[in-house]
Amino acid sequence: MKRTTFFFPFIFIIATLGCKNTPVTSVKRPKLVVGIVVDQMRWDFLYRYNSRYGKGGFKRLMSEGFSCENAMINYLPAYTAVGHSCIFTGSVPSINGISGNDWIEQLTGKSVYCTQDNTVQGVGVNSAEDGKMSPRNLLSTTITDELRMATNYESKVVGISLKDRAAILPAGHSPNGAFWLDDSTGRFITSSYYMQRLPYWVEDYNRQNHIEKLIANGWNTLYDGNSYTESDADEQPYEGKFAGETTTSFPHNIKEAYKIKKSSFRYTPFGNSFTLDFAKEAVMGYQLGMGASTDFLTINCASTDYVGHMFGPNSREVEDTYLRLDKDLEDFFSFLDDKVGKDNYLVFMTADHGAANAIQYMQKHGMPAEFLNSKQMLDSLNIILKQKFKVDTLVKSGMNSQVNFDMPRINRDRLDFDAIKKTTVDYLQQQPGILYAVDVSKIGVAAIPEPIKKMIINGYNFKRSGAVQVIANPGWFEGYGKTGTTHGAWYPYDTHIPLLFMGWGIRHGSSNATVHMTDIAPTISALLHIQMPNGCIGEPIQGVVNNR
Ligand SMILES: [Zn+2]
């Protein structure tokens, strides 16, 4: 009794002092939330190219906004669809179901693309086969869905990207629109999941041949080529080539490459210019941030990813792409200041994943890195499994760094799945470049460091993930063409992402406290005073919500 009376007022005082962010009596929200996901942007790119960023782009986010300097992805695999789903659901593949860009339905063996939906039709497409996309495979709500529900669908939500998945998944299940690029026509398209025909302003935009204008002068460096001191020399064996080119150096003849292969456009910084230009049209077309309710625009700048995949992070092409994106962002923020009003909009900028350094770049400097040959490895594994279990091709694929078994066959013939997995793990663990192979159902007892274990579990969806997870050595990855780079692993180069909030009362600051990608959606929820998405496992970031 005595102890209670002593401690109670003490605890009360601490609780009162510690609670800076008191509940509000009248709900205040920004007019517009803009979520910008820079595809494949590593956190260190904020600093690496910093000296040549202008005042109004990345540096404005850093000087006016709040930077979470240690934002980490907390699941596997670090791929585009998974990242976008996590950012906007606050959840992980285990719960939200987006376990890769592609996956194999384990019970049927069917291959699935994350946003493929054959029950819908493309809208604005030339071929009936194109644009059959929707968010139906996403199992939980997004922050954009929650905003729509919280305002009784008065809020408008729009998703934009060159990539279908990066427009569709962030915009959630009930947006006003999601638009992505159709390479064959150079037009922004959508699907009948959203609408029966394109809005007039999209059709109008599509008629203006923006791509031809953007590539009219080819792609040369923004500044003198020799001033690209953050990058390697221009001609490198680890860089890819555009269609029709014989070297990997500037200037790139994009006009010619585009003639040969339409998708070449994506592999230029002008893809980001095109996306942000179209985003402006969407703001005006839907009058985003100009109504009574809070609207939400999601933008994925995908070209950083395409250029990164082709040339690797140490190329002049990547440096030039970030310097140009910086200018495009400056222009876009000025546009928002003008049309929506400075402090009326809240921006957050992050990435869906990072990227490894190119393997040949690493090797040139004596760093540990090597190409994995998973096809050869899995072929040998199938021979061993056949000898033991008398069945052909028990392993179907190594997709998403998981061993995907022939589950229909294993279930039908009642094969000893535990024994098959054990043989698989025993074999793979002994292969060069494999750090761990683990039967996920036995991960509790596996000798794997806790942080990696947690990421494997978060990333594992029983119906959509392969049953054995493989972790390659640091710096090792599958390199089909031996050029460029990729991402997907747990390593910091793939999972340490930028995360900045700016505008609408966000105070300038930064924190080195570790936060996770799953914390982004609940932070936005807290700022907007709306329910967090229904699969959310993250927490509001205190530095951001308390710093207002
Ligand atoms: Zn991506």
Structural notes for this entry:
The protein has 548 residues and is of the alpha/beta class. The protein has two domains: 32-363 and 491-545, Alkaline Phosphatase, subunit A (3-Layer(aba) Sandwich); 371-472, Gyrase A, domain 2 (2-Layer Sandwich), CATH 3.30.1360. The chain has helices at 2-18, 45-48, 58-64, 80-89, 93-96, 143-150, 164-171, 200-206, 210-214, 254-260, 270-285, 303-311, 316-341, 359-364, 374-389, 407-412, 417-429, 450-459, 492-495, 520-528, 542-545, and strands at residues 32-38, 66-72, 102-104, 111-113, 122-123, 157-160, 177-182, 187-191, 295-301, 345-350, 371-372, 395-397, 402-405, 434-439, 468-472, 477-478, 496-497, 499-503, 509-516. The strands form four sheets. Strands 1, 2, 5, 6, 7, 8, 9, 10, 17, 18 and 19 form an eleven-stranded mixed β-sheet that branches. Helix 4 (80-89) runs parallel beside helix 7, helix 11 (270-285) runs parallel beside helix 13 and helix 12 packs antiparallel against helix 13 (316-341). Bound molecules: zinc ion (ZN). Zinc ion binds at residues 39-40, 80, 305, 352-353.
